[in-house]
Amino acid sequence: MPGKPTGLRIVLAEDAALLREGLAGILERAGHHVIAAVGDAPALRAYVDGTAPDLVITGIRMPPTHTDEGLRAAVEIRDGHPRLGILLLSAYIADAYVAQLLDATGGGGIGYLLKDRVGHVREFLDSVARVAEGGTVIDPEVVRHLLARRRDDGPLGTLTDREREVLALMAEGHTNHSIAARLFVSEAAVRKHIGSIFAKLPLDPDRDRRVSAVLTYLRRA
Fold this sequence. Notes:
The protein has 221 residues and is of the alpha/beta class. The protein is 50% helix and 14% strand. It contains 10 helices and 6 strands, in the order βαβαβαβαβαβααααα. It has helices spanning 17-29, 41-51, 69-80, 95-103, 121-132, 140-149, 161-171, 176-183, 187-200, 209-219, and strands at residues 9-13, 33-38, 55-59, 85-90, 110-114, 136-138. The chain has a 6-stranded parallel sheet, sandwiched between helices. The chain is globular and about 45 Å long.
């Protein structure tokens, strides 16, 4: 795809050795450089501080407790490197992880994918590219889970059903062209809906409007 970043310098952290090696292979074959592939959070933090990568990809569960060490490391990394893209991988949906992930956002891209998504190699690599470019990519299953429990108070309550559909697809990382194809409407109609969304939601002036709208939507879920 034209414009997609290649040759990214990536630090990869995943405690399952087989998955870690598989991810490294996928990334390397796509033209990226895995400058470190580690199995625990301290090593992840050390390599990020020492190598200044373009992107971090990390699992959430890490030794020694196998709970949220990867997530906590990602939050610390974002505090110290606010422009660095971070893509988290999880075996399941956890509301607390989503909230902490979104609260940790700075200027860099952010992503949260379920590990099953890695099996869809093209989708996974597209997500890597979007996060490296500063975008937000949330797994469709996570978005659907949030939709099922989302509050409609405040500005989100002013969105139409179609605008919510568009915003949910934006949260999944879809382009205008992809949204139009999925909803069977024109790209002009999608742009109109997005313009209305931007007008209705309180957006962060220091962020890209598309990213800010998605984060506003997910934080209020």
